[in-house]
Amino acid sequence: MIKQITKIILAFTLFAVANMVKADVDGVRVWQSPAHTRLVFDLSKPHQHKIFTLKNPYRIVIDLANNAKFIPEISDVDLASTLLVDLRTGKRSNKDLRMVFQLREDVDPKSKVLPPNKTYPHHRLVVDLVEKNPKIIEPVVTVKTVADKIKHNKRDIIVAIDAGHGGEDPGAVGYRRTKEKVVVLKIAKELARLLKEEPGYKPYLTRTGDYYIPLRERTRKARDANADLFISIHADAFHNSRAHGSSVFVLSERGASSEEARYLADKENEADLVGGVSLGDKDDHVAMTLLDLSMTATRGSSLAVGKSILKRMDKISRLHKKQVGEAAFMVLKAPDIPALLIETGFISNPGEAKKLATSKYQKQMAKEIFRGLTQYFYSEPPEGSYVAWKKQGGREVSGTVASSTSSKGVTAKTNKSYTIKRGDTLSHIAKRYKVSVNDIRRLNGIKSNRIQVGQRIKLPAS
């Protein structure tokens, strides 16, 4: 009798467990970026899954056990302009759900299950497909302009423009379902176009389409591009729909400058949770301390260019605050690069959302940001840049590095050494000795902008 009761209890337990782990696929989204393809499956419950690839033709197979069902219509899954060619679903062993995607190229798949959040109230299976032999090259702005006709050997000022959110993360959603990610990408592209047309400037877009980039990846891309300035463009929301006005923020050394600034920073820093990024690999304490020391040195430049842009934005938009705000935005933690976060308006405010959704206002906003940053760089041009050369009347200016006389009596410029001190950055060293950052890196074989206290480097002759 006891054995029979035990068997019944065990059977009920197994049945309950099986039903607990059963998860249907309620929706599928595909996001194509230059770096990879992302598949997102909305699940009714968290679920274990199995993934493997096949060849001839290239395919990726995803299995969900325990009688899982595929709810959406296959025809509703948009595969256009992606790495994916076709989708088929079926049953494996008469119980497991099998999804088979045919691919254009061979891939390495990586997957994770994300818990519900404020934007997505359900569990999500995220599968990233990274091509083994990538052919996709990240596009750049290719507008033929007057700037292309001017030939000079001076370097361009590189401005990294980051359109916030994207892909799985829509950002704020406001009046008439206006999405922040759509608005800010249009403003970013218009700003890039204006910079491309201006002699002496080179824009770099962190994203060029509707896909998500992790917050730390955005700043890494800016550093890899050797950017002189990083601008992250947003159009956020506040819980009070009457909140209005444009703002400019820099990274805070201590705390947020206002309650709204703290709210916006917390909201923006949650983007990785929405976009599908694991936060388990946080930087260690030592790395973050060195990072903070480097960022402190660029804070003054960030404030200066922020004030210049805010002054221009005041001409077309009511300002939320008359001063540059401060908050702990993760995306602004860019060592050696002045960094700003621009709120072009509150998309939660019906009046501002209407304006932000129009092409006319997007272009106006981009133009004022452009004017603000170019006015700043004209007053404080990086050494060795075309803008600095033009400001000096197009004349070469002798440097401050000591020179020596050769055996033939000709004065020859020599290199000078320098020992890195606490708070130094390559950009500030370059400015102090009137040389370019690229020349310092080239002379010392430095591949990034990272330097260490006590490190001895050579300075190029100016």
Outline the structure in words:
With 462 residues, the chain is an alpha+beta fold. It folds into three domains: 23-131, Immunoglobulin-like; 146-379, Zn-dependent exopeptidases (Aminopeptidase); 403-459, LysM domain (Membrane-bound Lytic Murein Transglycosylase D, Chain A), CATH 3.10.350. The protein is built from eleven helices and 18 strands. The strands form five sheets. Strands 10-9-11-14-12-13 form a six-stranded mixed β-sheet, sandwiched between helices. Strands 1-2-8-7 form a four-stranded antiparallel β-sheet, with no helix packed on it. A four-stranded antiparallel β-sheet has the order 3-4-6-5, with no helix packed on it. The longest helix has 29 residues, at 285-313. The radius of gyration is 27 Å and the shape is globular.
Features:
globular, single chain, 18 strands, Aminopeptidase, 11 helices, Immunoglobulin-like, 6-stranded mixed sheet, 462 residues, alpha+beta, Membrane-bound Lytic Murein Transglycosylase D, Chain A
Please report the number of helical segments: 11
Sequence of strands across the biggest β-sheet: 10-9-11-14-12-13
Overall form: globular
* Name of the CATH architecture of the largest domain: 3-Layer(aba) Sandwich
Write a short abstract of this structure.
The chain has 462 residues and is of the alpha+beta class.
Topology of this structure?
Blueprint: H1 2-21, E1 25-32, E2 37-43, E3 49-54, E4 59-64, E5 84-92, E6 96-103, E7 107-114, E8 123-131, E9 157-163, H2 180-197, E10 201-205, H3 215-224, E11 229-234, E12 247-251, H4 259-269, H5 271-275, H6 285-313, E13 325-327, E14 339-343, H7 350-356, H8 359-379, H9 386-391, E15 403-405, E16 411-413, E17 416-419, H10 426-432, H11 437-444, E18 456-459
Parallel strand pairs: 9-10, 9-11, 11-14, 12-13
Antiparallel strand pairs: 1-2, 2-8, 3-4, 4-6, 5-6, 7-8, 12-14, 15-16, 17-18
